[in-house]
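Before a computer can learn anything about folding, someone has to put a protein's shape into writing. The three-dimensional part falls to structure tokens, numbers that each stand for a local backbone shape. The protein below has been through that process, and both of its lines are reproduced in full.
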Amino acid sequence: LQQQMLEKLFRDGFIVLPRILNENEVASALSIVEEERRRDKNSYTLFSTSRELLSIFQDIILTNYLSLLVKNPTLHKGTEESHIAVNPCAHDNLKYSISDRPVHIDGAKVNLGSDGVQLNGGILQHSFTVLCGVALTDQSDVTKGCLEVIPGSHKWVAEFFRQQRGDSSTIIGPGHGNWPAGAAVPPPIKEQQPPILDDIHSQLVPVLMNPGDLVICCYHLLHRRGYNISDSNRINLYWRVDAKECAKMKEEKRNDFLVDELSGLNILSI
């Protein structure tokens, strides 16, 4: 099972593990989330310090799954809380539910539209090894605003970062060097993946999940939240995870993008 998970994670950039939480555990977590949202004016994204929510990560995900996939996994510094992410339905917030869904990687907020790549600021100006997400609501069809990813795209982005690191005059990361803000798809990615120029959105694949399912994504994987045209909000819990050796290297180098996050996966050591 470990070998199969590692191979799929390295090949596609993500895996889905079914039913890591049972119905009662999902209902309990959802109750906590809804209470926290009420206290925070029904925000669509917030960070929770709830011990019960964090225990889902510490006692279940970390112990049973991440220890097989990531070298000495630890919560990413500065994001040691549970990220509550709500993708509202049109009934809850029509404007938000039909707003633009840029394809991006976390940390640099890179927008990949059909016309190329643009830098869009960002709330997480750093990298991490993997993203873990647990579905608390039904996301079993594409109408429910599920996570959408481009399988294999983590390799394009990782290779591009490696090429940036080879140029000492370049600031590492999207939006800098030969991946400038507002530029078309950078040549290194263009050369690897010509189809990316045709229609980036046609390559998106919905990550279908049932309540209690776990998704684990490589940091570099291009993704977005899908359109929620159902009659209920989509609710996920997320945690960002570092391999300890990557976290240590980032502290020493003071530039996250200098660290090859894929080196934090156990796939390279088996």
In short: The helical segments are 2-12, 23-39, 51-69, 94-97, 153-165, 187-192, 244-253. Residues 108-124, 175-185 have pLDDT under 50 and may be disordered. The two ends are 13 Å apart (CA to CA). The CA atoms of residues 132 and 182 lie 30 Å apart.
